[in-house]
């Protein structure tokens, strides 16, 4: 799971072009939206595309994304659960 979290941080930085952010700047449980990393709804759409493209996971309900994209930790847990299903 640690490798997946690191991979997710790298992909988030790359996908969203966060040039001023490093992997070390993103804590596993830091909020990705709002006060944390400060992502917005456009970024959420990019993350949905990333899940589909990189992990083959399609979100049927975009409202699910709010819980899934809460933090790197919640994303890693969701991906692990989907891959195990």
UniProtKB/TrEMBL annotation:
Residues 2-83 form the Carrier domain. Signal peptide: none annotated. Gene3D superfamilies: ACP-like. PROSITE patterns: CARRIER. InterPro entries: ACP-like_sf (IPR036736), PP-bd_ACP (IPR009081). It comes from the Bacteria. This is Acyl carrier protein.
């Amino acid at each position: 799971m640690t490798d997946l979290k690191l991979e997710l941080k790298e992909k988030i930085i790359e996908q969203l072009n966060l040039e001023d952010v490093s992997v070390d700047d993103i804590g596993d449980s830091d909020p990705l939206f709002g006060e944390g990393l400060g992502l917005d709804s456009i970024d959420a759409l990019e993350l949905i595309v990333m899940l589909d493209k990189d992990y083959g996971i399609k979100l049927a309900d975009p409202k699910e994304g709010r819980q899934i994209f809460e933090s790197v930790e919640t994303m890693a847990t969701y991906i692990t659960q989907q891959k195990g299903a």
